[in-house]
Write a structure and sequence with these properties.
Layout lengths: L17 E6 L5 E10 L4 E10 L6 E2 L7 E6 L5 E6 L15 E6 L6 E2 L8 E5 L5 E9 L18 E2 L3 E2 L3 E9 L5 E3 L9 E4 L5 E6 L7 H6 L2 E6 L6 E5 L5 E9 L5 E8 L12 E6 L6 E2 L16 E2 L5 E8 L2 E8 L5 E3 L6 E7 L6 E7 L2 E8 L4 E3 L16 E6 L5 E7 L10 E7 L13 H8 L3 E6 L8 H4 L9 H16 L3 E11 L1 H10 L7 E5 L5 H7 L7 H4 L8 H6 L13 E6 L7 H13 L4 E6 L6 H4 L2 H18 L4
Parallel strand pairs: 33-34, 33-35, 35-36, 36-37, 37-38
Antiparallel strand pairs: 1-2, 2-3, 3-4, 5-6, 6-7, 7-8, 9-10, 10-13, 11-12, 13-14, 15-16, 16-17, 17-18, 19-20, 20-21, 21-22, 23-24, 24-25, 25-26, 27-28, 28-29, 29-30, 31-32, 32-34
Length: 661
C-alpha cells in the first residue's frame, strides 16, 4: 500500500507570503511582511521588509525568530512600529505567547519593546501627532474561583473559531506613550470594541460597540453604536445608534481627514425575523451623528472589509475599498459628494490589502492570480507592475491556467465557473474530474492562486469549480435566495453547471467524478451525495451535517439567519431536519472521507462524528481523519504538517476510487 508521505504535493506556502503593505509618508518606500514556513519547527516565521519604490530589490527590515507583523510608519516617517512575539518565545518571559508592540528607527537599528500588556496587542495605529499609539487588547472581566480552571459561562457569544472559549474576556482600547511607554486603558466594561479610529487632531477616538447591557441578544448582535472618547480618558460619548436607522453589522470605522465625517461599513437590516442577505456597503455620517448616507448602494456588490478597512483620500473627497466582483477582487473609490464609483484597479486578480500615497497617484497592494501566489504590485501614472518575486518555490514550476466558462441554467441564470486541465494533458483522453465547492456560502471562487486545485491538477485530475447562487460578487439578488435555505437552489446550480461542463469539455470522464468542499462546501458535498450517486468518491472537510445540533454548538449557529432565517429548532424542527444532510443518510452510497479539526468552533467536530457514526452503522464506505489542535481555517493557517497531511489524504482517497487513464 502506498504510504501517505509518498503522495506528492506542490510546494506549500503560507496563506499569504506577502501581506500588509504600508507606503511611507514621503511616498518613496513601502513596508510589508514576508512570511515563510519553518518545516523543522512546523511553524511560520515572518519579518518586516522594505522596498524602495524607485527600484531595487526588497531588503529585510526586521530580523530574528518568531512572527513580526503590522508595520506602520510614524506620521513623520522617522520610526516604524510593528507587532512581534519575539520576546514571548523566550522561556524566561512570563508573557510567553503574547504579541507585543515594538518600535525602531525607520533607517534601521535596534528595536525596543514598547508594551508588556497581559492581553497582548492587536491593530496598533499611530496618533496623528506621533506621540502615542492606539491598540486593542484582551481584558479578563469574568469570575473564577481561586485555583480553579473551570469556566463560568454567562453570555451566548462565549466562543469563536480560532480563538476558543473566552467567557469573561473582553476586547478594549488602550493607548501607549511613544516617549515613555506609559499605557492607558481608554474603554472599560462588559462589552467588546469592534473598530476604532483617531480623530485628525489626535484628541479623540471614535469606536464601535454597544456599552449597554443587551436586553435582546439578537438585536445586540446585529446593531452597534458609535461612541467617541478623549485621549485624556474622559467618559465615552454616544454619537450614533445603528438600530435607529436600520443599519447593522457596523465595522471598519474611519475618520475623515477634515474631521467632518465618520465612514464605516454596514448592512441594511430590516425585520430581524425575516432578515435576508444584504450587501455590505460604505456609509458616512456627520461627526455629530445623524442620518447615514449609503455611498455604494448603486454598486450592487458587497464590499470586502475582513481583509482591511476603509481609507480616506487626504482631501476627504473619496473613500477607497476592495470589492469582489465576478471572481476578481479589485480596489475601488467612491466620491463622497456625488456617490460616483470608479475602479482603481481592474484586473483578473484578487487584491487583499493596499496602501494609498497621500496624493492618490500611487497605490501599492498585495494581489494574487490563478498562477501567481501573493506578490506586491504598484499602480501609478506609468501603469501597473509587479514589484516583488519572492515565491521562489514556484519559479521553476509550470502552473496550469484555468479556463473560464459561463453555464446557462434551466432558470436562465448564468453560473460562472472555471476548469483546470491536468498536467501533461493530451487531447482525446478522458480524465477523472473533481468538483470543488467553495465555502460560505457567500464565498467566491475566482482569480487567485489555489494550492489545492493546482496540486490536484498536477496529480492528473481535471478540477472544476463554480460560483452558484449565494456566491458573493454577483449582486444582492443572486446571493439572497439561498440565505436561510441551503441545499435547494444552490445544489441545482452546481449540478447544472457540472452538466454544462461535461457537454462542453469532452475530456471530462462523466463516469469518473469526485466531489469535495470545506465548511459550507463540505455541507454541500454531504448534501449532493445524499441526493445523487453520480460521484464515485467524496471528501467532506470541516462540514455541517445536522443543522439542528449545529444551532447550539456552532459559534455562529445561534444567530440563526444564515441557516434558517431566524427560525429556532424548537419552533420548526422539521425545517431543520430537512435542511440537514444527515436526514438523507440512507441515500448515501458514495465512498466518503470525512476530515475535521478538533478545535473547529464554526462547524464543530460533532457534525462529522454524527455522519461518520451513522454511515458506519449502515455499513457504508467511510473514513474519518481528525486533526488535533486545529481550527476551522486550518487550510490556510494550520500547522504546515497538518496542511500537508490534509491534502495527501484527499489525494489518497480520490486515487483509491477514481480511475486514472
Amino acid at each position: 500500500m502506498k504510504k501517505l508521505e509518498d503522495y506528492p504535493i506542490l510546494p506549500l506556502l503560507p496563506s499569504q507570503p506577502i501581506a500588509d503593505p504600508q507606503i511611507s509618508p514621503d511616498g518613496d518606500k513601502v513596508l510589508f511582511t514576508y512570511s515563510k514556513i519553518n518545516f523543522k519547527k512546523d511553524s511560520y516565521e515572518s519579518n518586516v521588509w522594505q522596498l524602495n519604490l524607485d527600484g531595487g530589490e526588497p531588503k529585510q527590515f526586521t530580523s530574528g525568530i518568531g512572527r513580526d507583523s503590522n508595520p506602520r510608519w510614524s506620521p513623520d516617517g522617522k520610526h516604524v512600529l510593528f507587532l512581534s512575539d519575539r520576546a514571548a518565545l523566550s522561556q524566561e518571559n512570563e508573557e510567553k505567547g503574547k504579541t507585543q508592540l515594538w518600535v525602531m528607527p525607520s533607517f534601521g537599528g535596534e528595536a525596543r519593546s514598547l508594551t508588556r500588556v497581559e492581553g497582548g496587542v492587536q491593530n496598533p495605529e499611530w496618533a496623528p501627532d506621533g506621540k502615542s499609539i492606539l491598540f486593542f487588547s484582551k481584558v479578563f472581566m469574568g469570575e473564577k474561583a481561586e485555583g480553579s480552571d473551570a469556566m463560568i459561562i454567562r453570555r451566548v457569544d462565549y466562543k469563536w473559531d480560532g480563538r476558543g472559549v473566552f467567557d469573561g474576556e473582553r476586547t478594549h482600547l488602550f493607548a501607549v506613550s511613544f516617549e515613555d511607554g506609559k499605557v492607558s486603558q481608554l474603554t472599560d466594561g462588559h462589552y467588546d470594541v469592534l473598530s476604532a479610529a483617531w480623530s485628525p487632531d489626535g484628541r479623540d477616538i471614535a469606536f464601535v460597540t454597544d456599552m449597554d447591557p443587551p436586553t435582546d441578544i439578537m438585536r445586540a448582535h446585529y446593531f452597534q453604536k458609535i461612541y467617541t472618547v478623549s485621549i485624556d480618558e474622559v467618559e465615552p460619548s454616544l454619537v450614533w445608534k445603528g438600530e435607529k436607522w436600520d443599519v447593522g453589522r457596523v465595522n471598519s470605522l474611519a475618520w475623515s481627514p477634515d474631521g467632518r465625517y465618520l465612514a464605516f461599513s454596514g448592512n441594511v437590516i430590516g425585520d430581524l425575523d425575516e432578515d435576508i442577505y444584504k450587501n455590505n456597503c460604505v456609509w458616512v455620517i456627520p461627526i455629530e451623528g445623524g442620518r447615514p448616507i449609503n455611498l455604494t448602494e448603486s454598486l450592487d456588490r458587497s464590499i470586502r472589509t475582513w481583509t482591511m478597512g476603509l481609507i480616506w483620500s487626504q482631501d476627504s473627497k473619496k473613500i477607497y475599498f476592495t470589492v469582489p466582483n465576478k471572481g476578481s477582487t479589485n480596489i475601488y473609490k467612491v466620491d463622497v459628494d456625488t456617490k460616483n464609483i470608479e475602479s482603481v484597479t481592474d484586473e483578473k486578480f484578487s487584491v487583499s490589502r493596499f496602501s494609498i500615497e497621500d496624493s492618490g497617484s500611487k497605490v501599492v497592494f498585495v494581489a494574487t492570480d490563478n498562477v501567481t501566489p501573493h506578490e506586491l504590485w504598484v499602480k501609478n501614472e506609468v501603469g501597473l507592475m509587479k514589484v516583488t518575486n519572492v515565491n521562489k518555490e514556484y519559479h521553476e514550476i509550470s502552473l496550469i491556467e484555468p479556463e473560464e466558462f459561463w453555464a446557462k441554467t434551466s432558470e436562465g441564470l448564468d453560473i460562472h465557473g472555471w476548469i483546470v486541465k491536468p498536467a501533461n494533458f493530451e487531447e482525446g483522453v478522458k480524465y477523472p474530474t473533481i468538483l470543488e465547492i467553495h465555502g460560505g456560502p457567500h464565498g467566491m471562487c475566482g482569480y487567485s492562486f489555489n494550492h489545492e486545485y493546482q496540486t490536484l491538477a498536477n496529480h492528473g485530475y481535471v478540477v472544476l469549480y463554480t460560483n452558484p447562487r449565494a456566491s458573493t460578487g454577483y449582486g444582492e439578488a443572486f446571493a439572497a435566495p439561498v440565505y436561510g435555505l441551503w441545499g435547494v437552489l444552490d445544489s441545482k446550480d452546481i449540478m447544472e453547471a457540472l452538466d454544462y461542463a461535461i457537454g462542453r469539455y469532452k475530456f471530462i470522464d462523466e463516469d469518473n467524478l469526485g466531489v469535495t468542499g470545506l465548511s459550507y462546501g463540505g455541507y454541500m458535498t454531504n448534501w449532493l451525495i445524499g441526493h445523487t450517486n453520480r460521484f464515485k468518491a467524496a471528501v467532506s472537510r470541516n462540514s455541517l451535517t445536522n443543522m439542528y445540533s449545529a444551532w447550539g454548538t456552532s459559534d455562529i449557529g445561534w444567530m440563526g439567519h444564515e441557516i434558517s432565517r431566524a427560525k429556532t429548532p424548537w419552533k420548526d424542527t422539521q425545517f431543520y431536519l430537512e435542511q440537514s444532510p444527515i436526514h438523507y443518510i440512507e441515500n448515501i452510497e458514495t465512498p466518503l472521507l470525512l476530515t475535521h479539526c478538533e478545535e473547529d468552533h464554526r462547524c464543530p467536530m460533532e457534525q462529522s462524528e454524527q455522519l461518520y457514526t451513522g454511515l458506519k452503522r449502515l455499513g457504508r464506505e467511510v473514513e474519518f481523519v481528525r486533526f488535533p489542535g486545529e481550527s476551522h481555517v486550518m487550510i490556510g493557517i494550520g500547522t504546515p504538517r497538518h496542511r500537508t497531511e490534509r491534502l495527501r489524504h484527499i489525494l489518497r482517497w480520490f486515487d483509491r476510487y477514481l480511475d486514472k487513464a
